[in-house]
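Subject: Predicted fold for GNAT family N-acetyltransferase, 213 residues

User T.R. writes:
Posting the sequence so we have a shared reference for the thread.
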Amino acid sequence: MKILIANKSHASYAEIICNTIEESAKVRGTGIARRTPEYIINKMEKGNAVIALDGEKFAGFCYIETWSHDKYVANSGLIVHPDFRNQGLAKDIKNVIFEHSRKKYPEAKIFGITTGLAVMKINYDLGYQPVTFSELTDDEAFWKGCQTCKNYDVLTRTDHKMCLCTGMLYDPAKKKDAKKVEKPKSRFNEKTFQRLKHIKQTLFFKKEKLEKE
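User M.O. replies:
I've generated the structure tokens; pasting them so everyone works from the same file.
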């Protein structure tokens, strides 16, 4: 298995990448911003993506998005092909794209929004911290990308302040300060995030039901 910085020679995998992302979202029943093969190829050509290959077979993918004049970076579209799941590949891909992002955009804040507990744990282990949406980029282009998500109405109803996703942020400036004061690292509490997700689902869907009545 090889995890590589993608380039234009990997363009032939764009279609299967998009299909795998979409099918995974359907199985999980979660919202996701759809991407086109052309969009994925553009990321490859700019060196803003990593791809995992088992020989010539597609195994996984993740790409970089930049916002607010490169002040914010997001590692998006993390996906592992069904044939290679439950082997720790998602974490390996995330580690590679995270380090690639830090080298290419050393001053940028790296953030993500997700409903997946597995991704939250990977992010937490890399040094991300849960934050409110107000601490993420205010670039309208980023939030416009959420329009194809089935939960977009929740985001608009809360004026982009909250959604079913959890926002997480890695701030390189804070990490530099943290090195000066050594603190024991707390463990990722999965039950807490599950409870938070359940509360938000109950709150938003109950409100939606009342509005329809």
